[in-house]
Design a protein that fits this description.
single chain; mainly alpha
């Protein structure tokens, strides 16, 4: 019974995420990716502390998949140097996550989480800045 309930909750979460994604603009989708990335990093930290290897690997792999999604969404033509620098940052963070995975390195995980949180906050400000510039 517990497994059925857990599956139901996971299915509900997947449907809600899919619904939110279908209604989201590109900026909101990026925010959702960053939210998922940070959730995975937080979960990985907890699993490292609990010495739960399988769960840690799952969440780090999920974070790596999200980073790949962020990287492939970059528009290098219109984004210019910003897209290039973000791509380099996502590559760096991916390499750092491999170190976290191999060594259960919480300090490196904190570095990655802090970097990604800063980028997430910067993305959060972009729509507001774009709205303001349209009004002027």
């Amino acid at each position: 019974m517990l497994t059925l309930n857990r599956r139901a909750v996971q299915s509900y979460g997947a449907v809600m995420t899919e619904t939110r994604a279908s209604d989201a603009d590109p900026g909101q989708l990026i925010q959702m990716l960053f939210d998922g990335l940070l959730d995975s990093l937080n979960a990985a930290e907890g699993h490292i502390s609990q010495r739960s290897v399988k769960a840690k690997v799952y969440h780090i792999n999920r974070a790596l998949r999200i980073l790949l999604g962020l990287r492939t969404s970059l528009d290098h033509v219109r984004g210019g140097d910003i897209a290039r620098h973000l791509g380099e940052l996502y590559d760096y963070v991916s390499r750092r996550l491999l170190i976290v995975n191999l060594n259960d390195d919480i300090e490196t995980l904190h570095e990655v989480r802090d970097l990604m949180n800063e980028v997430r906050e910067a993305w959060r400000l972009v729509p507001a800045a774009a709205r303001r510039s349209r009004m002027m």
